[in-house]
Structure formats: structure tokens, C-alpha cells
Backbone:
């Protein structure tokens, strides 16, 4: 129970944690502002819950980033390296997590006496007759419960072992001397996909959780899942969350991630940005909508990289990086003049993506509420506060996280 509370309330603790860590990711400022403004896109019927708890939803906007300090499985929920999977990834990558796992996995046939590799993502030279074709030969529906139970657990290098009679496949093992008649024969499936990010699948999963929370009139879970999905959707609007070159490390542009999503909003958002995003809209096909967001975001990547590369070659070198005091620490960061030049060259991209994120979040919240049957928010509306036990857990968490070491991918430096 206490472990569950740790992950449930780590986001609230993050308000205290900001005092001793630099601000990473979209930036604590941007994530909070995006979640806050999304509340005002909602219909009046939802306001009794969301307006009354706007401070909670704002504060918890940074919760998923804080969970990266506690869980090695959290980071992959924030991104998808879609370009890792080919030149036309939006055509090649399955739109379901189960399909992606099955397509990009290593497969083994396990008998009483031997384990034989029959398909490997890293070894395309395997004979075609031995390739395990998930589209034609696997009954995906029969596997969904197996994969769904493990969606949030042990994602890195996860291995599933399935009885041979639970998988429909074309026998192609005669040359290997493998008999499929043995009831003890199993298929081992090793996940090679998840470590490159599961953002769109995770957003769908959290949206389903939010819908159930509305159905159950569970205010605590409504607020938690609403705040979480707000964070993940905001991340899905950051171009560098859609690429294997997530921090410019492959193009000698290391540090561009925090430059784009943290430094620029902190410098220019408060004075220059217009957050009017329009009203929330009902989303009929949530998975398709999420993938459309990812694809649109990814379309900005080339510009994000090329403009920064051009400026580093033409802008005065001594005006590119400066030292500033932050949280009683001296940090090296992009000078305001250099940041302003980058910001202007992108012609409002960061502002536009923040505004799109605001509208997307409101639409996802409202769609979950509508799919749940539009429950009366007045019946469950109150201002949510922490119990004494929850506060004790937060104190423990404060003690655990002071090292500030992210588990998984770190794109700050």
C-alpha cells in the first residue's frame, strides 16, 4: 500500500523537490502552465471538479517527471523514438502496443531440450521461412490479456513465455527439427521495442484509466490521471520527444532538448505567449488522434535541428552560452540573445506547440468524461487534500530522492 502511495503522490512532492534541482524537460513552468490553461477549455459541466482543483492539477503536472527519479519504467512513457523504426515509421510502426511488441521482438521456440532463435530484430539475415510474421500468423487478440497485464511492469527487456497452443502460427520449423506436437513447447517473446519509447500507447492507456475513474465517480483518480495525461500529451508536442536523436547527441547538438522545451518557454512565455487555445472537442478515435499528434510534432524536428545548427555557426561564439544563478547554483545555459535568435527563427513554433498541447489535453479530458456517460461533476466535486498517511509517504520520498539521479534516459545534459 505504501509503495502505491509513493508513486501516486510523488507529483505533489515535486513542488518541494524543485527547491533543490534544476528544472528539466518541457520545464516545470511550461508543464504547469499547460495543465492550468487546459482547464479553461472545458465545458461548464466539468468545472465543478476541474476549476475547484485547478491548483492540484497544476502542481501535479510535473509528477511524471518526478517519477523518473524513482522508477526505471517511467521514462519510456514520455517519448517514442519513432524514427528508429525505419524511413517511413508512421506506416511501419503498429498503432497498438501489442502489435508493436509482436513486430519488433526476438522470438524463440523452447522445447524440453533446446531453445532456438527463430526471429531476431537485429539479424534480418535469418531465413525468410523462419520469420515469425505477427500480422498473418499470430492471433493477436488471444495475446492481448497477456501483454496488457504487463503493460506497466518490467518493460525493459520484458520476456513472455506462451504455450504453443496459445499462438496461431504457420509451422516452419522442419529444417530445425522442432516438433510443435509437444505440449511443453513454448514461444518466448523478448521485448526489443519498449526501450525506444511507448508514448502514444501510454497516453491511450492513461486515457482509459481516466475514463474508468469518471465512470466510478472516483475524484482522487480523476485528478491523478487527468494531471498525468496532461503531462504525457504535453511531451507528445515536443519534437525531440519523437526521435532517437532526442538531445542532438547524434548531430553534435547536445543540449538542444532542454534548450527548446525549457529555456525558451522560461525566457519568453510569460511576456509573449498567447495561450488562447479554443474549446475542447470530443475525440472519436483516441488512438488515431494521438498518432496524428505524434506525426505532426515529428514534422517539426528537421527545422528544430537545422535552425540551431545554422545559428551555432553564424552567431558570435561568446554570446551563445552564459552562466546564471539558479537555486543557489551556477549553471551554464544559452545566453538570452542566442535563445532569442533561435526563438525568432522558429517563428512561434514553441508557442504554437504549447497552445496545441493545451487544446489537446482539454479534449482528452472531455472525451474521457463523455465516454464515461457524462457523470454529474457536482456530485463528486470537493477540494482534494492529502491525508496524514500520504504526507508521511511524501516525507519518506523527499529523503529518497535527494540524490536526484534519473533512472533511465537523461536528456538534461
Residues:
Amino acid at each position: 500500500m505504501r509503495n502505491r502511495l509513493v508513486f501516486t503522490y510523488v507529483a505533489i512532492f515535486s513542488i518541494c523537490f524543485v527547491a533543490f534541482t534544476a528544472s528539466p524537460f518541457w520545464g516545470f513552468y511550461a508543464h504547469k502552465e499547460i495543465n492550468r490553461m487546459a482547464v479553461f477549455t472545458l465545458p461548464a459541466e466539468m468545472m465543478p471538479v476541474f476549476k475547484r482543483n485547478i491548483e492540484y492539477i497544476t502542481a501535479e503536472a510535473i509528477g511524471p517527471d518526478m517519477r523518473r527519479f524513482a522508477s526505471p519504467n517511467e521514462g519510456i512513457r514520455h517519448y517514442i523514438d519513432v524514427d528508429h523504426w525505419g524511413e517511413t515509421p508512421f506506416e511501419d510502426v503498429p498503432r497498438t502496443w501489442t502489435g508493436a511488441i509482436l513486430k519488433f521482438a526476438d522470438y524463440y521456440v523452447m522445447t524440453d531440450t533446446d531453445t532456438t532463435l527463430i526471429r531476431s530484430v537485429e539479424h534480418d539475415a535469418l531465413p525468410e521461412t523462419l520469420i515469425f510474421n505477427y500480422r498473418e500468423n499470430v492471433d493477436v487478440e488471444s495475446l492481448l490479456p497477456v501483454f496488457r497485464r504487463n503493460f506497466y511492469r518490467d518493460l525493459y527487456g520484458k520476456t513472455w513465455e506462451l504455450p504453443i497452443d496459445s499462438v496461431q502460427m504457420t509451422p516452419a520449423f522442419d529444417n530445425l527439427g522442432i516438433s510443435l506436437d509437444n505440449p511443453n513447447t513454448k514461444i518466448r517473446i523478448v521485448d526489443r521495442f519498449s526501450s525506444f519509447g511507448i508514448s502514444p500507447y501510454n497516453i491511450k492507456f492513461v486515457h482509459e484509466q481516466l475514463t474508468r475513474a469518471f465512470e466510478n465517480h472516483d475524484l482522487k483518480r480523476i485528478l491523478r490521471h487527468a494531471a498525468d495525461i496532461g503531462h504525457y500529451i504535453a511531451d507528445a508536442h515536443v519534437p525531440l520527444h519523437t526521435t532517437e536523436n532526442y538531445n542532438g547527441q547524434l548531430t553534435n547538438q547536445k543540449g538542444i532538448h532542454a534548450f527548446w522545451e525549457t529555456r525558451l518557454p522560461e525566457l519568453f512565455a510569460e511576456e509573449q505567449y498567447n495561450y488562447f487555445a479554443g474549446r475542447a472537442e470530443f475525440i472519436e478515435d483516441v488512438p488515431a488522434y494521438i498518432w496524428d499528434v505524434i506525426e505532426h510534432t515529428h514534422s517539426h524536428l528537421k527545422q528544430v535541428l537545422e535552425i540551431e545548427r545554422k545559428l551555432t555557426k553564424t552567431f558570435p561564439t561568446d554570446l551563445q552560452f552564459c552562466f546564471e544563478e539558479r537555486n543557489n547554483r551556477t549553471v551554464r545555459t544559452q545566453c538570452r540573445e542566442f535563445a532569442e535568435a533561435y526563438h525568432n527563427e522558429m517563428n512561434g513554433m514553441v508557442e504554437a506547440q504549447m497552445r496545441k498541447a493545451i487544446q489537446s489535453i482539454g479534449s482528452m479530458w472531455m472525451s474521457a468524461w463523455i465516454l464515461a456517460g457524462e457523470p454529474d461533476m457536482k456530485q463528486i466535486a470537493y477540494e482534494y487534500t492529502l491525508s496524514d498517511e500520504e504526507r508521511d509517504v511524501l516525507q519518506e520520498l523527499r529523503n529518497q530522492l535527494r540524490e536526484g539521479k534519473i533512472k533511465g534516459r537523461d536528456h538534461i545534459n
Q: What stands out?
A: Residues 1-25, 125-138, 168-174 have pLDDT under 50 and may be disordered. DSSP finds 17 helices and six strands in the chain. Residues 41 and 235 are 19 Å apart (CA to CA). Residues 349-371 form the longest helix (23 residues).
